[in-house]
Amino acid sequence: MGWLSVDHLVQQRGLGRPQTKFRGEFWREGNVAFLKPLTFMNLSGASVREVFDFYKLEPEDVLIIYDDLALPYGKLRLRAQGSAGGHNGLASVLGALGTLSVPRLRIGLGGVPVERGGMIGRVLGHLNSEEREQLPDILDRVEAAVNAWLTMDIQKAMSRVNEPPREQTKE
User: Which CATH number fits domain 2-162: 3.40.50.1470, 1.10.10.10, 3.40.50.300, 3.40.50.11590?
Assistant: First the structure.
């Protein structure tokens, strides 16, 4: 979901093909950059660290977007800091940056259905038809969440992103 999100973000911004830099696919637009590490997920921190050092960033300047099996499918959670919660890619980033104070946007994948190959099958597998139908809306909400993070202080952005979606009333 992290890669799908970055693909959506760069497509919406018309950024075209990436550069191959920092051990990943890299796009830059003004003071915003997007990175898809090409390392193994468990080593993605090395790629993030290269960008971090090159641009002399602070941890709060980085937003990690990743999937989370503990959240219902499509639910978004923006946090300013915290542990990796068992996510090896995030653990790699936190370790490489030497802090837990790295903002992150979690995208729910839902539970681990046994018939789809367990955890690995869920993370690396394909979405079912219902999930594929919901994906454009999820990616639009991810884009809105990233824009909130870019334009608001983290507390306001968290309030906006983490609030439950409003129920639409039928007239």
Answer: 3.40.50.1470
